[in-house]
Fold this protein.
Amino acid sequence: MNKRTIVFCSENQGKIAEIKESLSFLEDVDVVTKKELGIEIDIEETGKTFKENALIKAKAVYEMIHQPVISDDSGLCVDALNGEPGIYSARYAGENKTDTEKCLYLLNKMKDITDLSARTCHFTTCLCYIDQGGNEHYFEKYLEGRIAFEPRGHNGHGYDPIFLLPNGKHVAELSLAEKNKISHRGQAIRSLVEYLRHDGL
């Protein structure tokens, strides 16, 4: 079987693991990262929305290789912080901060909000898929929850340790398979998979 290659435009190891696991059962598709192809490009995310940033990243790589490309832009939106950190989630606490530092920074911003019901939030993912012909396709999904009062769990990445699900678990307490069943990115990837199954590359 000749495998078809899709390039995933991310250097985030957590995201790479999630998307490779989610697409692994598409036997005719091989997901590779831009790093695995030796593509080194610094892409400035100048968009104002998750969708715009996902397109910027996908288009930059597609124009270099003219192969099918997936990119995503994801973030945490906290209602009490007027939607912050949003598209700035990765660098909200400053450049080159660890996931632990990001979580602690956000918890400190929310320290005066002591009512759990006022700590509502959601994760957003927008996947941009550019097919062989350069056509753009978007898959945007959400995961609702609340900001916990302290981190818990050792799985996942980003803000997963402080994202409290309705069932009382933190996202970082879930296995990768469990997370992919419910997560914003998992939902978006499933929509992408359905598209690939029916419409191909």
Summary: The radius of gyration is 17 Å. The CA atoms of residues 70 and 109 lie 33 Å apart. The first strand starts at residue 4 and ends at 8. Strands lie at 4-8, 29-33, 69-78, 120-130, 136-147, 163-164.
